[in-house]
């Protein structure tokens, strides 16, 4: 079958289903989510067997260990997938929320109503749990979804897709509300991201290569994040204990996440007090330190191993036990460094100084700006969104962690009593 | 000079200026706006003379009457331009608004801060007043602007641009905060809409051809609206007087605006009562009526001239004294017609029926949905935004009339006391 025809068919069905979902009541959506969760729990063995087959094929194809790790499902992971759907069912329905109503001098009353975006295309790589998460978030926010998972997870994804369809059927919702691509033809992605008449937004989730390709070729708007080059700036007036605790956690809590600190900035006034303490912690945990000359000499004097950084280090998302460190005169230089070399994801200041905290919040141009807390908090669950479809470093539409609200739009509602324009 | 180099230079300067504007205080921005207004009032004669030269050249080039009309400035128009800037100065500053702060179980406090988008590129056609409006809206919302007006208005625009720069200087703000292109080379537009490193959003204002070209070729996100195919649906339970007043106003108040009704939908139950009354009003005002067979026979029976519509009429934005009319069984068919043939701009229902009004609001997928008022209210001033840069029919980011808030984004703010992720 022709890929273009196949994708157009999917698009048409998704658009039609999106109209039904937009007016579906909250009970029906929640019923579908709970039925999906039940089906996943019931079919856990079947799903795990499909996942073993995916893993065998991936190993035979020589795929790397990191990918195999993302692909692998455990019994606990399957239970977590079902729990995630139940948690989405428990969240308030964002669709139809009305706000900001006010009377205007003409006598009309004007406000906003939250509405679904329509059809959301999600393109992801190995992790099969994205199939359930994305289906759940799109459904709850009243959107139809077209999901394109990685070819290496095809068997796992099709089992999950069957559970999703079963849940939709159980609640009397159209099965085309969530469609999982049955082709792994790369041309299908090209169609998906250019079908502007059928798809309202694309969310790519995966490596930088995938996201760059999608951003470059898409004609449909994209909610994306590329790098997470996050900073912690330890100000001259920082509380030393907070600084050490935060800079340790931001780097070493998890190395591979996008909200992990990649560059530590330290004010000159406090560098000799804080760098040796932190350096010892990093050294114990095996974190390689790449430093500006000043930081390097402080660390070496304290007997802590470190090497010299190149400019490339300030622009690198390591996703690994490596940390770039720069000592700077103060706040102005820290803000300039972050705005120039950062990726506008999440940046933190540690300080007890009110005015500098306030300036940092206003002047650092990032999706999340943080005072006296770890960058690791930049996450939909920690922010109270209940779930997240991704973290956006764009400024248009959704910025930072994207939850149910980020998958909606607001329309204007005008209520009158026969008013006309004079 | 090479167009690419020229545009890159403008982009770099705009990006640098945007950082200054993002932290500029409200007083400085308002002072600049008022100084711009004063300079325009002072230079009114110079501006009118430049406009006469633009008009002479446009006439000599054989440009059409509609374009000459949009290009022409009057003394009153110049005063209105200055007033518009003063009104923008009087609006609340959206930048830095903080909202939704709440404590999370971890002890961090999470909320949002409103921030500028950065650099906004505006591409428009003949109307010189857009130069002042757009400069004012971008400045107040803390964004740098790159403005590309129509070549036919080049002399007028440069006089306005000089006043804008004078205002920025008077307030100590960088002149590069508002840059008006000095080239009319079409390649400059191609650069502007693809310089993703320097431009955060493009707002095209003008005819469909311009907007389609920009949408097709842009790599920078676009806030746009294409057609305004607006509907009024007169329900079976409509109040007849309200229906007549609204359907008259929505069509005949102004023919050339995007929120003008282009198609009238009438419930069968009320068609014989309402169509003859409305038909007589339209006939008196010289509005051509293009009708479905049922509407046609009702109108002809009442002796009102009308012709048969083709399917093309349901998809046409006339911007002229022409109206398409369809009689339908009821609400379901009206909603289906609007969602299929409309342009998701502004659609109204006239009814006294609570349940049908509520369904119309929820199920019509348009930027503005209206009960018992004219579609002509869909406008930034009428909605209380104070000003508007355009009306978006997109769902992503800004929908409907776009005012100062539509030119901003929100970042997340996290306030802690040393919290780390467990």
Summarize the structure in words.
- Two copies of one chain form a homodimer.
- Chain A has a seven-stranded parallel β-sheet. Chain A has a four-stranded parallel β-sheet with strand order 5-4-3-6, with helices on both faces. Chain A has a three-stranded antiparallel β-sheet with strand order 1-2-16, with no helix packed on it.
- In chain A, helix 1 (3-22) packs across helix 8 and helix 6 packs parallel to helix 7 (154-170).
- In chain A, strand 7, helix 10 and strand 8 (261-267) form a beta-alpha-beta unit.
- Helices cover 44% and strands 21% of the residues of chain A.
- Chain A is of the alpha/beta class.
- Chains A and B meet through strand 2, helix 10, helix 15, strand 13 and strand 16 of A and helix 1, strand 2, helix 10, helix 15 and strand 13 of B.
- Strand 16 of chain A pairs parallel with strand 13 (368-373) of chain B, so a sheet runs across the interface.
């Amino acid at each position: 079958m022709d890929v273009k025809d196949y994708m157009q068919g999917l698009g048409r069905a998704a658009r039609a289903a999106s109209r039904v979902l937009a007016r579906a009541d909250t009970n029906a959506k929640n019923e579908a989510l709970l039925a999906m969760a039940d089906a996943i729990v019931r079919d856990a063995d079947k799903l795990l067997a499909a996942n073993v087959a995916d893993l065998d094929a991936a190993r035979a194809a020589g795929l790397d260990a990191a990918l195999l790790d993302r692909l692998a499902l455990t019994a606990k992971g399957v239970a977590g997938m079902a729990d995630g759907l139940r948690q989405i069912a428990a969240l308030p329905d964002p669709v139809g929320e009305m706000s900001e109503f006010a009377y205007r001098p003409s006598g009309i009353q004007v406000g906003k109503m939250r509405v679904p975006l329509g059809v959301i295309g999600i393109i992801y790589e190995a992790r099969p749990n994205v199939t359930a998460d994305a289906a759940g978030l799109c459904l709850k926010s009243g959107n139809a979804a077209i999901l394109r998972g990685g070819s290496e997870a095809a068997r796992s994804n099709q089992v999950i897709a069957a559970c999703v369809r079963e849940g939709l059927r159980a609640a009397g919702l159209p099965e085309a509300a969530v469609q999982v691509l049955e082709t792994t033809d790369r041309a299908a992605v090209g169609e998906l991201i250019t079908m502007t008449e059928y798809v309202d937004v694309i969310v790519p989730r995966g490596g930088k290569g995938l996201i760059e390709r999608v951003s470059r070729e898409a004609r449909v708007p994209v909610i994306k994040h590329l790098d997470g080059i996050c900073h912690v700036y330890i100000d001259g007036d920082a509380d030393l204990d907070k600084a050490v605790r935060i800079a340790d956690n931001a780097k070493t809590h998890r190395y591979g996440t996008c909200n992990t600190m990649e560059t530590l900035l330290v004010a000159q006034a406090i560098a000799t007090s804080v760098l040796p303490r932190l350096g010892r912690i990093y050294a114990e945990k095996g974190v390689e330190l790449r430093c500006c000359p000043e930081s390097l000499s402080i660390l070496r004097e304290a007997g802590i191993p470190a090497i010299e950084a190149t400019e490339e280090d300030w622009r690198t998302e390591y996703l690994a036990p490596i940390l770039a460190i720069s000592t700077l005169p103060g706040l102005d230089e820290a803000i300039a460094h972050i705005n120039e070399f950062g990726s506008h994801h999440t940046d933190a200041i540690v300080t007890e100084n009110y005015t500098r905290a306030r300036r940092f919040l206003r002047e650092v141009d990032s999706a999340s700006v943080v005072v006296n807390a770890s960058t690791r908090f930049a996450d939909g669950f920690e922010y109270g969104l209940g779930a997240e479809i991704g973290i956006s470093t764009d400024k248009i539409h959704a910025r930072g962690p994207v939850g149910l609200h980020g998958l909606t739009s607001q329309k204007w509602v005008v209520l009158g009593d026969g008013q006309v324009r004079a």
